[in-house]
Amino acid sequence: MDMQSSISKQKDIGTNDVIFSEVQNVMTKLEAAEGSSIFFIDKCVYMAFRYLGLLKSLFENKKEIIGHFMLSETIDYLPADQLIYFVSPDLDNLRSLVVHILSYTKRFPSAVPHIYFVPHKPLIVEQVLDEEYKLFQAFPKLKLEELDVDMFFLEANRMSMEVPKAFYRLYASGDITPLTWAARGILKLQATRYGAIPCIRGKGEQAAQVVRMLRGLQNEVGKQFLTEIAPEIDTLLILDRSLDFVTPLLTQLTYEGLLDELYGINACEVCFPFSISESAHVGDGVELTNRDKVFAELRDKNFSSVGTCLYQKSVWVKQNYEKRKDVQQLKELKEFIKVLPEMQEYHQRVGMHTSIATEVGRVTQDFNFGKRIEMEHNLIQQNNVKDVFEYIEDLVFRKEPLPSVLRILCLYSMINGLKLKVYESIKESMMLVYGIPQIMSVFFNLERCGLLAVADGRPTVVPNYSHVRKVFQTWCQHLNEEQPNDIAYTYSGYAPPLARLVDSLIGNPRSWGSGNSLVDQLPGPKEELTSHIDLPTASKGSWYL
Q1: Which of 16, 128, 141, 243 is least buried, going by the fewest C-beta atoms within 10 A?
Q2: pTM for this structure?
Q3: Do 141 and 67 belong together in one domain?
Q4: 280 compared with 316, residue with greater pLDDT
């Protein structure tokens, strides 16, 4: 679908209503065809649909819909006339998609497959399915379409493209498709929801390319699409992940961060391997958003202060329940009964998060967890680096999970560098423990991404950590944990340099073009797109992507 048509279609629709409308259009088409349908959906899209309530409102309690399942599930016992897929156009996953289609149609030959790519259908995907897998030859009625959904609004101030492999595609495969999607999404947000953004800035190779793509798209569709809505955002800041590889390699230490580390948060939902209450079951999904008032207060706190906070809340709940004993007049009783449901809900949430925090606490109090944090802090302070490498070797010899080992090895590489002799030694050890094919493949991809490299003196796009640490003051020795006033509180002493950068740019926006500001201390180009549109401004502040 061309950009102008997409914008025109979504112009008068609200945020998540766009998604509902797009999926509803698909359902209407399917209802026009005779027969039953079964849906298989990529995990990331499935989780977003479930969180937004689309599965319940559009897929359930309809006679013509046999069921909806994640793509990873093999359902070969439910016959349907139409086999519908909502999937990401990921070349690496096309084989499993084709296998899934062939497996189902082998069991039910009359089923006609339809594939909807989210958010768009690249030509290369169609070519691979046709020329390599001969899918059109096997299924003459096969339809390839797209579900034009660029962004999922998960919370009021938070949205996601739900493209989990975007980093791999950009840095390992060299596929710039996610950048195109980002540019399209930003343009559509301006045209349909937030109005023209007067100033859009990008720092880093990929971010600068998004800004250039956005400039081209705006010239293509014309300014008329950006002049009907009063601007709500004055500056959009787009930053490359490559500007700071260190921070995502560190263990997150906030309450929300640890839940993501230990259990994985997908589309604001987490499933725990334990029961969080007497009425709950193991594996039940729990929504984690600001609609949960307790979670809203806990999510950004360092986990070390979560226990105290929950205790204070439980005392507050108890004291409020005790107030019922002091009720003497009918008016007071009515007031108490009025707030009772909300108080009971709050009490339930406090109990739930207390159960969760107790389980998380068992992990954080474990010796191995503490040792990991100690080694990470040694690295980011560049102290006792030799001990850190010995720790990594010990992880390998104990055959700890490979992702855990690779994460701290990449962190070591980013901060300290890996000399050739050391690099070859650890690679050989890991091949002996984890297998040659797996380690060869993993090291190849990590090197292509710039996460793992031999320190041979050649120039690199990865920032020099020693310089970044000094200029951005990434380590804070003295923290006020009672009344935290520094972002370093979230990582128990470490301040992400991009947080420092954003703070600096918000405080002094003109420093962007000065040539000697913090933004110029990081490698990579910077790009700026300004829109001069005569409309009353109702700016809400900067956005950071």
Answers
A1: 141
A2: 0.89
A3: yes
A4: 316
